[in-house]
Amino acid sequence: MTNDILIIGGGVVGLAIAVELRLRGASVTLLCRDFHAAASHAAAGMLAPQAEQIPPGAMLDLCWRSRSLYPEWTRKLEEISGKPTGYWACGILAPVYEDVGAHGCAPLQENNSSPAYYLDKEAIHLYQPGLSEAVEGGWWYPEDAQVDNRALTLALWSAAESLGVDLHDGIAVEGILQHQGRVIGVQTSSGNFPADRYILASGAWSSELLPLPVRPKKGQMLSVQIPDSDRADATLQRVLYAPDVYIVPRRESRSETLRERRIIIGATSEDVGFTPYNTPAGIQALLQRAIRIYPQLQDYPIREFWWGFRPTTPDELPILGNSPCSNLTLATGHYRNGILLAPITAKLIADLVWEQKSEPLLDSFSYLRFMRGSRERFGAGSRGKRAEETKRLGAEEQESNNCQLSTKNQLPITNYQLPITNNSQMQTLDLPQQQSLDRPLVIADRTFSSRLMTGTGKYRNVEEMQQSVVASGCQIVTVAVRRVQTKAPGHENLAEALDWTKLWMLPNTAGCQTAEEAIRVARLGREMAKVLGQEDNNFVKLEVIPDPKYLLPDPIGTLQAAEQLVKEGFAVLPYINADPMLAKRLEEVGCVTVMPLASPIGSGQGLKTTANIQIIIENSGVPVVVDAGIGTPSEAAQAMELGADALLINTAIAQAKNPPAMARGMKLATEAGRLAYLAGRIPIKDYAIASSPLSGTVTS
């Protein structure tokens, strides 16, 4: 058995897994972007499955098991590292502000083997002096605990170092390289790191490397210093946990003086992406809530402010276990419970990776829960294919003779008759002639019968997008990777909205302003396609657009990004100005198409760059796809009549009064324009020529 394991992420979860695997005999390398920026440093260190009122189920089971591991786990870490972890089985007190009766509010947990006691007002004030008179009672959870998260993280790093883990700090992972369903390396700012097996534990940054539904939730915190004048027996001795704030007193260690005693106050929960820094509003809210519970905090000097980014998923549960790649394991998305779940995560992931033993509990935390139909797509023996046919979204009805494309609040088109299909004679004449005249569209050795590509953005709702894609007859659909990451409207459920067994995904780098951004997003897009079952999809529509007003592509940045992406094995389809010299240069560096704009994105101005597009078509040895600015089917036909190989149309369809009808119109126009180009138009003359010859006519 090979034992080369690479872990991406140097927070408490990644380090805990590294230590556990090393103790079992594995050879482990760990890559850390910035050790001191990990969310582990910004936590409070509460081990509070009961106080947090985690509902019964797999998550509560996971938390209880992890809490029970803590005493022995931290003892072993302190022994290996020689450093304290600050573990303290202090119990947690959850005050309430109103009288809830003799029995109080029962905890949510059922079949709870851990005790919980309700304290009335008199009892809770005796148990913890100094509480506000507004506190009417509360719950006491004696088995909840805390750990000094910063001390724990330092102890884990030291333990990993002592055990021989190959630690690399200050290395940014830029991409996960895959081939045929396996990871073959990790591309970093310091080069490529190959390994036999890989573990992704990069917390809130995980979605920058794989298309996982993990996003940052910012939390602001602060600490106050306990004055020397406060007697030790009169200060806060219990963790106080309320729904909107928690107050965590740190126990003195042997190395601390009385002057260094501190209390942690946290934490906000802000859905603001990776927006840094503390804010007056955030800190003020925390202080007000904390003082309401424990008033004497208002007189304590503030010692420190900080913030961090919790990795959260849509259901706020972690993602643990296998991934679409056979040698990549996931350990991310722990949200508020990364510190609490570190020991059990390390054990379960080490069992899975090293012992090839998967505990049934992991099934509840699989990434597959976020993907409808994903078990068919990635099921045993059928990776990348659905086990049964998905619903066709009305495709058969769309292709029938009576195509009904009516949509809510829009102009209905009923009994829309498709040209040609009602005339059997025309069918037998048209299709063979077209096939004999034309050649198929081939991009990067992949053949497509449709020459119309469409997008997924700007639609009013997902139903219109689904109907339009079907009505267009397209085979290539472009998807903005960054919008999927941020769950922009209309992009939340693309995995389920379209049948990716019949459509080819073209991830695009829309929103990227620099070559570096575009390269990173392109790598993520390739992983997104793999998650949807297209493991051999290396296509990317390259957009580098720093100009926010006119949305014109950056030629230098586009060329730089294209050169790098081609080296990494991408099939690059670059979006460019209609610049013949740039188009030729991009072809020379290995791009598989060029995509000149007809006019600015979304403008609907039609063909404003006809002369340059004609030059590009004449000189190009790769397919030319006219992209951006087309507003009507007549303009689509005109672009194809120039000799373009294909069109990419999004806004003109998505923003039409009836998008599915416009999609059908664009399909027919694309086909008509192509046929007209192949047939060859008549010459333009300065004089009239009679349609009927004069010779042989009847004369009087």
From TrEMBL:
Reaction(s) catalysed by this chain, per the record, are: [ThiS sulfur-carrier protein]-C-terminal-Gly-aminoethanethioate + 2-iminoacetate + 1-deoxy-D-xylulose 5-phosphate = [ThiS sulfur-carrier protein]-C-terminal Gly-Gly + 2-[(2R,5Z)-2-carboxy-4-methylthiazol-5(2H)-ylidene]ethyl phosphate + 2 H2O + H(+); glycine + O2 + H2O = glyoxylate + H2O2 + NH4(+)
Q: What does this protein do?
A: Catalyzes the rearrangement of 1-deoxy-D-xylulose 5-phosphate (DXP) to produce the thiazole phosphate moiety of thiamine. Sulfur is provided by the thiocarboxylate moiety of the carrier protein ThiS. In vitro, sulfur can be provided by H(2)S.
Q: What is its EC number?
A: 2.8.1.10
Name used for this protein in its record: Thiazole synthase
Q: Which Pfam families match?
A: DAO, ThiG
Q: Which UniProt keywords apply?
A: Cytoplasm, Oxidoreductase, Schiff base, Thiamine biosynthesis, Transferase
List locations, semicolon-separated: Cytoplasm
Query: Which pathway does it serve?
Result: Cofactor biosynthesis; thiamine diphosphate biosynthesis
List each coiled-coil range.
none
The catalytic site is made up of: K541 (schiff-base intermediate with dxp)
Please give the superkingdom of this protein's source: Bacteria
GO terms under biological process? thiamine diphosphate biosynthetic process
**Where is region (Disordered) located?**
379-402
The similarity comment for this entry is: Belongs to the ThiG family.
